[in-house]
Specification:
The structure is a homodimer of 216-residue chains. By secondary structure, chain A is an alpha/beta fold. Chain A is built from eight helices and nine strands. Chain A has two domains: 71 residues, Orthogonal Bundle (Arc Repressor Mutant, subunit A), CATH 1.10.10.10; 113 residues, NAD(P)-binding Rossmann-like Domain (Rossmann fold), CATH 3.40.50.720. Chain A binds a DNA duplex (30 and 30 nucleotides) through helix 3.
Chain lengths: 216, 216
DNA sequence: TTCACGCTGTGAATTGTTTCACATAGTGTA
DNA sequence: TACACTATGTGAAACAATTCACAGCGTGAA
């Protein structure tokens, strides 16, 4: 069985995304080259980690000059981005949904939130942060017609599974789930859970443990 | 050097938080016992993983009856929760900040968002989702006076480091960072980054890769 | 009372990720 | 040209997380 070309781990992909933003910032500050240890400081990891991640790209650095920022960014983009901007659908236009719309609105060339969905009739057919809001009943058909490939789930826990099922029926390939439950999906669909509740409990737990260490 | 008692990994803590919510749901459905494979299905992991995680608690199951849900929940709580409800401060009352306030407002006995902070004068001194909003200038003093131990950073990237510094000066032990940058903190402060941008790029990347596999 | 079943608890094996450490190479200096 | 310096690229080691696999036990059936 042939090894897949883009054989990069979940975590490595996340770091590449971060590096790209850090590189953009350096570029705006007039830099054109960068060393692995400089990126490492900014990304909060080790220089070795940065070099390993860069091994996944087809970009070489020079021992004396480091990496060319432009080339690094191009390398990251060729791995992370698809050829055309990716269409994203958002289910749930509550507080969180609106925050997500505002966050991605116009700021990301590689993603466009093409359609939002909500069951609240007062939201339906309005345009929120530049995005048309459809009734959830039309989710499957809109996702299919617009060829939306990624779905964001920002509905309450109780409705999450149903919305996920509909996204899948519409044919999405990936889902980002903000609801504090695990959802079932057919094989061939990738799910990323962003469990804010669990994250806060982690922070509280490790904060408490650090303070115990500090206090001893 | 004595081994710390609560020696649990980051990921395991996150799963315990999830298990607790799943158990609560089971309890509400009238169940009183549960097997590892039932939890595993709901949590999206393997039965062995569930049993390993439960090893971190001081709870034993019975081969014939599984685990007592009440005892499991108590075990999880004794690890995750502190004795008193934990005070949390929130910096940034924009779209995201309000979503976070709404999400935690009154629903979590173990956390209370005690104070919010913003630089916008039209938000300051108002009460939003039951939480008083202070000017950022007062962050350090309010955090110190209220003995807030966990900070949530929901401000734009450019202001994140400054807000983090102030939280640290106020004496927080843990931070949850939603800004799409890595922040520097003194040793003894735990930081959890929730990088939504990186998460969406991960979803898009793996979705694309899955579709390639599917298409071949 | 005895037996068969199926789940728990866990040592060992496996898999995945990060760090180490060093051979190699590009640059500036003399 | 030759040398010293420093950072890259990467095999190998270390470390961390997950899964396997099975001994042992508690229960219900006969």
């Amino acid at each position: 069985m042939m090894k897949l070309k883009n054989d990069i781990s979940d975590k490595a992909v996340g770091r590449l995304s971060l590096y790209r933003r850090l590189l953009q910032e350096l570029l705006e500050n007039g830099r054109s080259q960068v060393f692995s240890h400089e990126l490492a400081i900014r990304a909060g990891c080790t220089p070795a980690q940065v070099r390993r991640d860069i091994m996944n790209l087809e970009v070489l650095g020079s021992p004396a000059k480091g990496y060319e920022i432009q080339k690094l960014m191009a390398g990251i983009s060729s791995v992370l981005d698809s050829d055309a901007p990716q269409k994203v659908g958002l289910a749930g236009v509550g507080n969180l949904g609106r925050a997500i719309l505002a966050y991605f609105s116009g700021r990301t060339p590689q993603f466009v939130i093409t359609a939002a969905f909500d069951s609240d009739p007062t939201k339906v057919n309005r345009v929120i942060h530049g995005c048309r809001c459809y009734p959830v009943d039309e989710l499957v058909s809109v996702v299919r017609e617009e060829n939306i490939q990624v779905g964001i789930v920002a509905v309450p826990a109780a409705e999450a599974q149903q919305v996920v099922d509909e996204f899948c029926r519409g044919g999405v390939l990936g889902l980002m789930n903000f609801a504090p439950v695990r959802v079932r999906v057919p094989v061939g669909v990738y799910v990323e859970n962003l469990d804010v509740m669990a994250a806060l409990e982690r922070v509280a737990f490790f904060a408490r443990r650090l303070s115990a260490v500090r206090g001893e």
